[in-house]
Amino acid sequence: MGKATGFLxxxxxxxxxxxxxxxxxxxxxxxxxxxxxxxxxxASRCMNCGIPYCHNGxxxxxxIPDWNHLVYEGDWQNALEVLHxxxxxxxFTGRICPAxxxxxxxxxxxxxxxxxxxxxxxxxxxxxxxxxxxxxxxKRKTGKSIAVVGxxxxxxxxxxxxxxxxxxxTLFEKNDRMGGLLRYGIPDFKMEKDLINRRLMQMQAEGVxxxxxxxxxxxxxxxxxxxxxxxxxxSGGAEEARQLNIPGAEMAGVRLAMEFLTQQNKRxxxxxxxxxxxxxxxxxxxxxxxxxxxxxxxxxxxGTSNRQGAASVTQIEIMPKPPVREDKAMVWPxxxxxxxxxxxxxxxxxxxxxxxxxxxxxxxxxxxGLECVRLDWSNGxxxxxxxxxxxxxxxxxxxxMGFTGPRKAGMLDQxxxxxxxxxxxxxxxSDYKTSQEGVFACGDMRRGQSLVVWAIREGRQCARAxxxxxxxxxxxxx
Length: 478
Hints:
Helices cover 35% and strands 16% of the residues. By secondary structure, the protein is an alpha/beta fold.
């Protein structure tokens, strides 16, 4: 693969960012791609390792060494074909995936993995620019109809695969635009939404019918779906946000992260303010912002707050501060727990770890601060440090503490499917079948809060399971 001595001769070089002062003025993507010759050089670093751990590190099992070698040889079109053989939407993962493949790369033992994510993104972007990516309508129709409920990455991947197999597919979305978390949860500065729009146009040309502003369980009953379609796939995501159950959390200045991020994405799309903010507008301009939760959603709140002109942004996390570098001998090639600093953090943010929020302070219903206490994790469990209480100044507090599972009201309640012990829809990865005949589940609704790349994998696998269920066999890849 690549150049036999490439990893010895060429240093790792990844994409860069435009200047922070400039990118804070807009909501556009700001990653600066590598030029073609440098991308080919980076691809040549992919060594001929005996076991390509990157295959298993990648949830969709991308055939990474193969398309790295094709890029090194300048054969971009074949590289795109190999990339698409495992991933319907590499332009999504090439922008927002945390790249577990790079963590599993053999060269990561020396902290210099192949720039897999950047090469992946370059391949698919080149494909769109050259016009190589075209609709793939089926040669024949099966006569079977399928409803896919939820148009996030799992639903989109499942719908596209089923349509290509010849089934009549209708993709339902409760919001006014397709895309789910990709559309309304991921800030535009990380992934612009034209990327979703062009994939949806491709899917329509392949026969997928799009039904926006249609919530199953509200506008259309689950019973009606089951009566009118041969199979139903539930891919609605894990939308139930974890709440902050402390005194003062009911104040108007304490809001869920997804409310905040969704509003800004809707503004960017040109929606009127009343349409973008049914529960009232959330704007961080001139305010002291606290983000509770140290993950990607919290980081997105940091970047959005800074773009809105917050007076200050502080992100706190209940867990202890991770090490800067993982112990390779202990964790490689698994995904490591280590300190991660995002582009949003670099734009301006105070961060603190091992902090527990105790009480929201306020005057006349307005948030003025957050009372916190430091935690000791040295015994392997959370213990408050006596006398360590302190107050952070705050006008606005965003809750980015993760999700507890799918919403139960509406579709799930009407479907009467069995749930697992975590409250997700119970279905295994061998056939993705729920406890109800003809009803399948995939993505975060089945596995719980996870990555976009895992959602794409589950959508693809679920499509094959549905195809096998309806036709007795399937030629769709698993």
